[in-house]
Amino acid sequence: xxxxxxxxxxxxxxxxxxxxxxxxxxxxxxxxxxxxxxxxxxxxxxxxxxxxxxxxxxxxxxxxxxxxxxxxxxxxxxxxxxxxxxxxxxxxxxxxxxxxxxxxxxxxxxxxxxxxxxxxxxxxxxxxxxxxxxxxxxxxxxxxxxxxxxxxxxxxxxxxxxxxxxxxxxxxxxxxxxxxxxxxxxxxxxxxxxxxxxxxxxxxxxxxxxxxxxxxxxxxxxxxxxxxxxxxxxxxxxxxxxxxxxxxxxxxxxxxxxxxxxxxxxxxxxxxxxxxxxxxxxxxxxxxxxxxxxxxxxxxxxxxxxxxxxxxxxxxxxxxxxxxxxxxxxxxxxxxxxxxxxxxxxxxxxxx
Length: 352
Fold this sequence. Notes:
One of its GO terms (molecular function) is monooxygenase activity. It comes from Eubacterium segne. Pfam families: NMO. This is Probable nitronate monooxygenase. The chain has 352 residues and is of the alpha/beta class. The chain has 2 domains: 6-247 and 339-351, Aldolase class I (TIM Barrel, Alpha-Beta Barrel); 249-337, no CATH class. Helices cover 38% and strands 16% of the residues. The chain is built from 13 helices and 14 strands. The chain has helices at residues 29-37, 60-79, 95-104, 120-124, 138-152, 174-182, 187-204, 219-227, 237-240, 249-256, 280-286, 312-321, 344-351; strands at residues 6-8, 11-13, 17-19, 41-45, 83-87, 109-112, 130-135, 159-162, 168-169, 210-213, 232-235, 263-267, 273-277, 329-330. It has an 8-stranded parallel beta sheet with strand order 3-11-10-8-7-6-5-4. Strand 12 and strand 13 (273-277) form a beta hairpin. 51% of the residues are buried. The model has no long low-confidence stretch (mean pLDDT 93).
């Protein structure tokens, strides 16, 4: 495979790869910095990024904003001039504040999903930060690009197309995920998205790079993305089982020891479907047990602590810390394929 560079405005990544943002605490400075050093684009997740700060539970917002800066600083030291960005979820209560802090911290790119990032251009102001929405269908990309054009006179710097085999929260209904896993090909939706994007390329006279994400595990998957005329790929789960990943070794080993049948679609407390590894905690949730939060941090806009089965922040922090049986173990559809702890460099070599 001939490896081409990924150009996003005045940024050039030697490898056409973006490392997916994984929160809480899975993709921080170590993973993002190393991916950038190896020629890709490293991405830090801001989802409860300050969970290790001493005042996290008493001063959550400031702890998170502080950690955005400290993780970026550490990533820069590792990256040696590579490209570093942030993944910031629209669903966060303090989305605007986190975007503005990421800009101050010197982000090269900001990628935003878990909702429609219609006001992202406003929040980055006059900065040169490159911005991209994560979309899973034609309808979403139409809404976002139309809004950005109408209200900000600009378009996306690049777009991440996340398919139904991705990990974590998914932009599909459970029925859609089942259909795509059986008889529907997501390629048709990718082509529809591409046609919409081409309209804005023509309107603005500039190329908008498209990045394919979701279940990319092998060189064949990468080649398939290029056959669809994608400019690059986004990979997340495959980087979990690397030495450089910021998660606990026990979280990494949960991937290594998993089998295909262990990976399932679960319902998150905010009603969105997600993909995770089955464990004793999730078995209890499925049976109807409820786990009230010990302290609500008001992290997500659409979360009512009185109605949820469990606190997603608590359970993702448990995963990052290695408390595997009490955690929510988000993963991609092909995470079970990973059978050893590797390195970022080896993962990139395998893919390209």
